[in-house]
Structure formats: structure tokens, C-alpha cells
Amino acid sequence: MPVPDINEKDHRLNVEGLSIKKSLILSVDQLKKNFEETSVTTAIQCAGNRRSDMNKYKKVQGLMWEGTAMGNAKWTGVRLRDVLIKAGVDPNDKRIKHVHFEGADSDPEGSHYGGSIPFEKAMKSECIIAYKMNEEKIPRDHGHPLRLIAPGIVGARQVKYLKTIRLSEEESPAHWQQKDYKAFPSSVQIGDPLDWSSVPSINEYPIQSYICIPSPGDKVKRSEEEIEFVGYAWSGGGRGIIRVEISTDGGKTWRNSELQQAPEQDLVCYFF
Ligand SMILES: Nc1nc2c(c(=O)[nH]1)N[C@H]1C(S)=C(S)[C@@H](COP(=O)(O)O)O[C@H]1N2
Ligand SMILES: [Mo]
Fold first, then answer.
1. Which residue range or ranges hold the Moybdenum cofactor oxidoreductase dimerisation domain (predicted)?
2. pTM to 2 decimals?
3. How, if at all, do strands 230-234 and 269-271 pair?
4. Are residues 154 and 244 in the same domain?
């Protein structure tokens, strides 16, 4: 949806929903002044990363991302948990199952971008409401002035232009939570009627790896004695990577690679 043009001074964050008696409304300044600042460095990956590769095996729907729908940055802000507790949320309240997030961007019908994460994840200290990316104000494209950062969870839930936080028993009813970013069994073809509610929404992404150098279509000479491969490997939920193996003969033989952890990374992303 169109990137909103937000004046930071006019922006308000609204915390409401299950167990909250009176909504907590915060300006960006109040957020900065009244809560402890913290940072997290994390890779964020779109759930559709490498769709163009998947599409070579079977037709998939959505933007045909190659291996670049992913990025890494240092995010600075306040803990989501601290803000929820300030709004009156009891961390042990068993009724609360999900936390919804809504952005200031909306479609022509006025529905805002949104998604949710489990309450248990939201209460972990790595989940933050960020106002800085790489030590600077968050650029417009990446969520100015506030953005949810929930490391280890798919990009779609890292809601930009964050405007509303809502506690609930249910997952977010937003299109992007219910009717997008879901993987159907292989028997389902594009064009078939889809029972979206039969498939759970993606939260933590499964394991992923990608060779950046050489890039697809690059030619390498067989006569070269050594070819360098460079790429990344990542697993959702901070699960980490044990090893990356590479085959240059279509999977007959495999070679191990050297792993290097991304600098300052709080949740594990590796380069090989
Ligand atoms: N408000 C809002 N937040 C959003 C989106 C959006 O369209 N609107 N897109 C999501 C998706 S699908 C992804 S992959 C990431 C992309 O983050 P980036 O633009 O910083 O790379 O933002 C997420 N947050
Ligand atoms: Mo995405």
C-alpha cells in the first residue's frame, strides 16, 4: 500500500483491547521519554523470499522475489513488553493469546495493514517498538516513525508506521494474517478455491539459504581451480545454522562451507 507521509509530532500509538480498561495513547516523544531504550540487531525476511526459485518447481502466487527480500539492521526503541505492562496488561493473563498490530497505511476502502504475533512472543524482551534503524530515524520506506520488530518472525508481522496495538484471544483478522503468506498442500493448484482457515499462518520461518555469488545466470569456467561461493543461511525463531553444504554436481557430492556469524547479530543469521 502507499507509504504514508507521517509527521512524527502528530503520530499517536494506541494500545487497547482485551484486559485494558482505558486505552493508552502515546506520542513518539512520550515513548522515548518514559521507557527504557534498547536495541536489537536482526535479519528480517519476507515470507515470500525466493518465490521465483520456488516458482521453478511449482507455480506460486505473489511478487516474484529472488533471494533479496531480506535485510539486516540494528533497531533501537523500547520493549513492547514494557509498553503493554504500562497499559495495564498482566503478563500472566491467560485470556490474552495474540497481539495485533496496525499500520497507518491503508487501502482505498480504509482497511489498515495489519498482523499479529502470539502474546507469549510479544512479552519477550527482544520484541521492540523501534524508532531508529541503524542509529538514524527510521527511513520512510522502512516504517517512520514507529515499527514493530519481532525478531525471528516473518517480515509481514514487523508492522511499519505502527499506530495501534490490540490484545486479543484471536489472531489478527487482517487480510495479511488470514489470507496471505500461507502454504497449501501440493495437491492444491493455483485457481482452486482456497480454504484459508484450514492452514495456519506463518510465524517463524523455516530454514532458508541462498547463494549470492555467483548469482543465477553467472558463468564460471570449469578450468578455474577455485570458485568462491558466498551466501546466507537463516532459520526462523533464532534457531541458528549448524552447517551449509554446497554441491556443484546437482547433488551427487557435497562440500562443507565456512560459516561466519553476522556481526553484532542478536539472533543468528550466518554468512557462508
Ligand atoms: N504498515 C506496513 N507494514 C509492513 C508492510 C506493509 O505493507 N505495511 N509490509 C510487511 C512485509 S510483507 C514485509 S516483508 C516487511 C518489509 O520490510 P522493509 O520494507 O523494511 O524491507 O514489512 C512488513 N510491514
Ligand atoms: Mo513480505
1. 201-265
2. 0.94
3. antiparallel
4. no
